[in-house]
Amino acid sequence: MKIIVCGGAGFIGSNFIHFLIQNYPDVKILNYDKLTYAGNLDNLRDIENDSRYSFFQGDIADKLTFQDQVQKFEPDVIINFAGETHNDHSVHGDTMPFVMTDVVGVNVILDTVRKFKIKKFIHVSTDEVYGETEIDDTYRFKEDDPFRPNSPYAAAKAGGDLMCRAYFESFKTPVVVTHCTNNYGPYQFPEKLIPFFTFRALNDQPLPLYGDGLNVRDWIYVLDHCEALMVLIEKAEPGKWYNIASQNHQHNIDIAKIILKILGKPESLITFVEDRPGHDRRYALDTTAIEKDLNWKPRHNDFEKALIETINWYKDNIEWVKKLEKKIGKFNPHIKI
Ligand code: NAD
């Protein structure tokens, strides 16, 4: 299989490339990534000389460059992880990069898939497009629930997803869209909750929790997400949408407490800060479709065990973090502690 991985230098994309290299001897990968602040080629240092892997620095919204790479590489499959992904930046910063990558960039990929008759396009999206579950605290969004995004990030992702729907309905472009919950694991840029809290706790710094800390997220180990995506590459019918989740629902405050417990640090490090606008209370997804139709289930079901492994990975790869230190000044710049 020849596959273009857009956004392969980010958190999930680099885990997906490692997963392919470890499990698919005949794979050929082109990692097409713009290398924004979140793109990090150090995530792929160990496999950069593997003959199955190549890298090109490019923007998915740059149609000429992207199509040139696709024409040369002749992929069977394109998978898109490229995204502006941080809610805080979309609420407090410039929203235009979100629109350019998450809407215009996706549109360029769709046009390209159509033009070069690529066999399959997997577009990786987020549970945040559904908005928060208001119906009751047990409701789980289904694939055909309406979109009600509340942050510019979620709205931009929803825009890209709707473009995928329209290309399938109008042109039969072979696209599969996924909506996944919060991922954790190695190589996550330390502006996101779990690595952010881990490093602050390691340095005895306060852990800033938005609001009352009772927002609920469903946490999936990144390798379970990668396995689900591979199942979709192999088995999903074009035009289908799939939710991906592990039904591991946690309050943010409990994540903070578990991290502090694992690291032997006091709960007094938890500090409550003013909530972010448009901060959804709870996300939850129904995953019957991918489990019943395609026989996928998450394998990392012991959250505390997988979290300990994740935290140990960050502790063992402190050099990886240190090299990001210049960018670390930008992490959650709007939180005043
Ligand atoms: P990330 O921020 O770690 O990585 C994004 C990558 O995309 C970076 O390498 C960046 O350089 C690249 N990129 C950004 N704009 C680009 C562009 N215009 N052209 C080419 N490359 C570009 O993101 P992530 O956490 O790995 O998430 C990957 C995808 O999965 C995103 O689309 C996100 O919406 C989705 N998702 C993430 C999570 C999560 O918990 N991390 C959960 C559900 C869905």
Please describe what this structure looks like:
With 337 residues, this protein is an alpha/beta fold. 40% of the residues lie in helices and 17% in strands. The strands form three sheets. A seven-stranded parallel sheet has the order 3-2-1-4-5-6-10, with helices on both faces. The chain has a three-stranded mixed sheet with strand order 7-9-11. β5, α5 and β6 form a beta-alpha-beta unit. α1 crosses α7 and α4 runs parallel beside α5. The longest helix has 20 residues. The chain is globular. The chain starts with a strand and ends in a 9-residue tail after the last helix. The C terminus is likely disordered. Nicotinamide-adenine-dinucleotide (NAD) binds next to α1, α4, β5 and β7.
Give a concise summary.
The chain has 337 residues and is α/β, with parallel strands linked by helices.
Properties at a glance:
alpha/beta, globular, disordered C terminus, 12 helices, single chain, 337 residues, binds nicotinamide-adenine-dinucleotide, 3-stranded mixed β-sheet
Helices and strands, with pairings:
Layout: E1 2-6, H1 11-23, E2 28-33, E3 53-57, H2 63-73, E4 77-80, H3 87-92, H4 96-115, E5 120-126, H5 152-171, E6 175-180, E7 182-184, H6 193-202, E8 207-210, E9 216-221, H7 222-235, E10 241-244, E11 249-251, H8 252-263, E12 270-273, H9 288-294, H10 303-316, H11 318-322, H12 325-328
Parallel strand pairs: 1-2, 1-4, 2-3, 4-5, 5-6, 6-10, 7-9, 8-12
Antiparallel strand pairs: 9-11
Helix pairs in contact: 1-7, 2-4, 4-5, 6-8
The chain binds nicotinamide-adenine-dinucleotide.
